[in-house]
Amino acid sequence: MRELLILVKRHTCIYFADKGNIVFTCLSSIIVVMLYAFFIFDTQVDSLVAAMAGTDRTEAVTFVCTWFLAGQITLIIFGATFNAMAIFIDDMKYNGSDVQIFPLSKVKIIVSYCIQAILIALLFGIGSLIIGTLLIWCQQGYLIPASALFAAVGVIILGTIFSAILAMFIVTFMKTAKAFSSVQIVLNTLMGFLIGMYIPIGTLPDFMQKIIFWNPYMSMSVWLRELLAGEQFQQLFTKAPSAQQDQLAVFYGLRAESFDTLWSTSDLALFIASITVIIFAFLLVSFAKKRYTR
Q1: Contact (Cβ atoms closer than 8 angstroms) between residue 250 and residue 233
Q2: Within 13 Å of residue 8, how many CA atoms lie on the same side as its CB?
Q3: 192-223: burial string, b at 16+ Cβ within 10 Å, e else
Q4: What is the pLDDT of residue 100?
Q5: 3-class SS at 257?
Q6: Do the beta carbons of residue 52 and residue 237 sit within 8 Å?
Q7: What is the spatial distance between Cα 206 and Cα 281, in angstroms, rounded to a whole number?
Q8: Are 76 and 128 in contact (CB under 8 A)?
Q9: For the packed helices 2-17 and 57-84, what is the interaxial angle rounded to 10 degrees?
Q10: How far apart are CA 3 and CA 112, in angstroms?
Q11: If we measure between CA atoms, which residue out of 216, 210, 293, 219 comes closest to residue 258?
Q12: Is 247 helix (H, G, I), strand (E, B) or coil?
């Protein structure tokens, strides 16, 4: 256990020693927020106000802010875990010689990289949650309930574990930092659409919605939206019939649906956990075939 903790500390220190890792992770998040604020935010608020007669614009703005925050947290978790795995690529340049000095099994070596990525993603994910909550409170006067915030932290923890293991699995197939960077850029660009962050998921074609709802990152985003924006959603659409509220919840990505069945939070948790276990099993098989481990 001591060797594992030392290895995790080593990975984490290497990550934070390069200030560019922190700057680019934060910068990418800031760019997404600015692009959304300048080009999409007003349009989405106006469409809400127009669709629901008598809707107060302040309530619509608050809902959109909390709705966007959930997607932003999901996206930064994705980016942070993948950025953290760049250390693995660098280590493999030297055939993992720095890592092999530790008397650890292959599983523990994998776990050390995953724990490091989880800790870094938790820092950015929970940090985004806190900063976003405070900004919404200061600007809109709305404070997300404490129970929802604590539950959101639990979702972030589960999501970072999944994302770290997925990133580790993908990175085992990358031979150079350049190849990994290219894959990361493509995935990061697509992820905003694959979690319904820029536009409501209901505006996409039906076949795309059915595919996207099976994306674990979408499940994470749906769960966070339900927690962070659920109260504002109920206030905004309180006059709508129950059946219509369910349709609107799916449209805005506060509920997941497949085969005409709405998913509960337990379904979302089980789905993310199951995919995590499956990917970890494939990761062990993939890692066992590599020659750079003990």
Answers
A1: no
A2: 16
A3: bebbbbbebbeeeeeeebeebbebbbbbbbbb
A4: 57
A5: strand
A6: yes
A7: 32
A8: yes
A9: 110
A10: 10
A11: 210
A12: helix
Task: With H, G, I as helix, E, B as strand and everything else as coil, classify residue 262.
Answer: strand
In which residue ranges of the chain is pLDDT below 50? Answer: 97, 292-294
Q: What is the pLDDT of residues 155-195, one digit of tens each?
A: 999 999 999 999 999 988 887 777 888 888 888 888 888 89
C-alpha to C-alpha distance for 7 and 12, rounded to whole angstroms = 9
> CA-to-CA distance for 194 and 184, rounded, in angstroms?
14
C-alpha distance from residue 189 to each of 74, 96, 125 (Å): 13, 30, 18
* Residue 30, token pair as written in the block: 């800031």
pTM, full prediction? 0.91
Nearest to 168 by CA among 269, 280, 76: 280
Query: pLDDT tens across 1-27, in order?
Result: 777 888 888 889 888 988 877 888 888
Tell me which amino acid residue 226 is: E
Place of tokens 């280590």: 91
Sign, Cα dihedral of 247, 248, 251, 253: negative
pLDDT score, position 228: 96
Query: Cα separations (Å) of 264 from 61, 254, 257, 268, 270?
Result: 27, 11, 9, 6, 10
Alpha-carbon gap, residue 12 to 54, rounded angstroms: 51
CA-only gyration radius of the chain, Å: 20
- Between CA 273 and CA 278, with CA 277 as vertex, the angle to 5 degrees is 115
Q: How far is CA 113 from the centre of its chain?
A: 18
What is the SS3 assignment for 102?
A: coil
Give the chain's length: 294
Residue 293 confidence (pLDDT): 43
